[in-house]
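Lab notebook, bench 4. Still working through the backlog of constructs that have no structural model yet. Next entry is a single chain of 371 residues. Request: give me the structure tokens for it.
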Amino acid sequence: MDMTLKGRILTSSGWLDGRLETGRDGRIAHLEGAPPEGGRVERYLLPGFIDLHVHGGAGADIMEGGLAVETVARLHARHGTTSLLATTMTAPRAEISTVLAALGERCRERVPGSARLLGVHLEGPYINPGKLGAQPSNACQALWEEIEEYRALAPIRLITLAPEVTGHMEIIQRLAAAGVRVQMGHSLGSYEDAVCALNHGASGFTHLFNAMTGLHHRKPGMVGAALAHAEYAELIPDLLHVHPGAMRAALRAIPRLFCVTDSTAAAGMPDGQYKLGSHTVTKCLGGVRLADGTIAGSTLTMDQALKNLVSIGLSLEDASHRLSLYPADYLGIAERGRLAVGAYADIVVLDAELNLIDVYVEGERLGLSDA
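Model written out:
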């Protein structure tokens, strides 16, 4: 449906006070305006958020497959996420295959009212059993034949693995050559392991600081390698997983640091118990934890992530880039993550206090309000 939206628009070349028009193909057909001259902003138009690490929401877990995936995509769309990677958990091979087959079906067509599934983030099982975090204890060494079987079931865009595990450097090289992004995470690897992996084609770090070897001035670890060498890394800005001071250090060091939710079924739900893969987790006091107290994903949504980034001192433009532009560029997607003629009409509309007013996914208005 054709539509016209007006406001302060974050375009590829900066802010404009103006309007954009969409066409029947769900893309932006026209955009015009002038540089802002001050005055109160009634509404902001930003690119829709892109979340590359989503385990669940609205009581549903990605590992349940089927309709649960649609429930997750609808919940996050209503919080401004216009596209996402459905993220799996470490599990037995047969279970992963079943889930990937279901995800492959749902990546082919977007369900109205929901976010676009861009593909899959395979988080595990190729991780270090000594650094599981909240992952189930089904870690194993990667085998190329197994990965190829998984890739035949669903579009796997991103894989998290531990580079120090035997054989993984070669796997990283082959995945990079195949166009699959590789992130390091759930790892006991050293600084040297991480640098070697980057040289073999790894391109990022999964939930930076969490479930990896930390920074020490004589043993820089995975975190040190990320701060010293990474162009991209993902971080969870819920202000629980990472202290704002550490977040600011990473923001200064990693040029295109982007943010994810790592959200679980508990996102958008009241306190209580929920599924995270084969685990039962408890939501309370704004967080999600295993029975032993281990942080187990989050309840974060991307609209709150934006507010959190601004609250620690980022400009709205910078915060938006880390939720939209940078994850799109990381996956090599030129038609999302930006408001420009020809790009998909994935748009979030915010009021002056950065509260979400409306969300448009490929031109479809989700109808959050009549404002």
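Notes after review: The two ends are 19 Å apart (CA to CA). Residues 3-45+341-365 form a domain with the Urease, subunit C; domain 1 fold (CATH 2.30.40.10). Flag for follow-up if needed.
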